[in-house]
Amino acid sequence: MNLTNYVRQVSLEDFDKEFRHTASWNKRLHSTGGRFFPKDGHLDFNPRIYEQFGLETFRKIVRHELCHYHLYFEKKGYRHKDRDFKQLLKAVDGLRYAPTLSSQSTAKTLVYQCLHCRAQYHRKRRINTERYCCGRCQGKLIFVRQLQS
């Protein structure tokens, strides 16, 4: 799918206005469905939203970003808190919030323990046990287990 052409089509069908900039996929987006850049007018979209939720949900996210886009160039309130934005989003049936991606909810906790004083450390990121030691007694740390939340 050519993303820019799809966004142009949605803009014409749902807003009766032309989209004159570019749209691109951005794999680095994690918690958002898309982003609007007022400086140059381009839009970025999260490809995982399209892959996990399908075209119908993705179209609603495109509408959301196009609300920002069109209101900005009309010099109206384009931010989430503005009345103009909320009214236009409701009129075109766009999503207010991006749905939660399944990979987001699988947070892991790593448990390390000191060999000397038995103090436990719960971390989200891995610790280099060769370089770091216990903060209480400077004993050697070992990896104990990984907890899934």
UniProtKB/TrEMBL annotation:
Binding-site residues, Zn(2+)? H64, H68
The Swiss-Prot or TrEMBL record lists the needed cofactor(s) as: Zn(2+)
GO CC term, one of those recorded: cytoplasm
The entry's keywords: Cytoplasm, Metal-binding, Zinc
Under the heading InterPro entries, the entry gives: SprT-like_domain, SprT_Zn_ribbon, Uncharacterised_SprT-like
Cofactor-binding details, from the entry: Binds 1 zinc ion.
A GO BP term here is: response to stress
Q: Which domain of life is it from?
A: Bacteria
Instruction: Indicate yes or no for the key word Cytoplasm.
Output: yes
Record's signal peptide: none
Location of the active site: E65
Q: What Gene Ontology molecular function terms does this protein carry?
A: zinc ion binding
- Any single Pfam family the record assigns to this protein: Zn_ribbon_SprT
Family the entry assigns = Belongs to the SprT family.
Q: What is this protein called?
A: Protein SprT-like
